[in-house]
Design a protein that fits this description.
By secondary structure, this protein is α/β, with parallel strands linked by helices. It has a 4-stranded parallel β-sheet with strand order 3-2-1-4, with helices on both faces.
């Protein structure tokens, strides 16, 4: 299975299932795909990024440390991601893997504000 050239956001990407999803998905992406790895730990995200680039070095991977339980952080981070997507609109698909384990409503804010709005 190949995803083609994609813009992909993966939350909870620093360890566990999120890390596995990130590393496996990235094996199937074409060069020039853009991946935004989100989690709290920048150190762990950087490690995941380096692991991914060993198997698929032509991806553009953005490490995005963010606490998804903090609405202000979410708003700021997702505005940056939305701008990055606008600048790189020539992708085949846009994927969102929401794997972060937060019981707080700030992630709902993101989905309602950014994904439910008309393009």
């Amino acid at each position: 299975m190949t995803f083609g050239k994609v813009f992909c956001i993966i939350t909870g990407a620093s360890r566990g299932i999120g890390k596995c999803i990130a590393t496996e998905f990235c094996k199937e992406m074409l060069p020039g795909s853009i991946v935004c790895l989100l989690a709290r730990s920048e150190k762990n995200l950087t490690s995941v990024k380096n692991e991914i680039l060993k198997s698929n070095p032509k991806l553009f991977i953005r490490v995005c440390p963010v606490d998804l339980s903090n609405a202000t952080e979410c708003h700021t981070r997702f505005e940056h991601i939305q701008n990055l997507l606008r600048e790189n609109s020539s992708v085949d698909k846009t994927l969102l893997v929401h794997n972060a384990g937060t019981p707080v409503k700030s992630s709902d804010y993101f989905f309602i504000k950014y994904w439910s709005a008309p393009a």
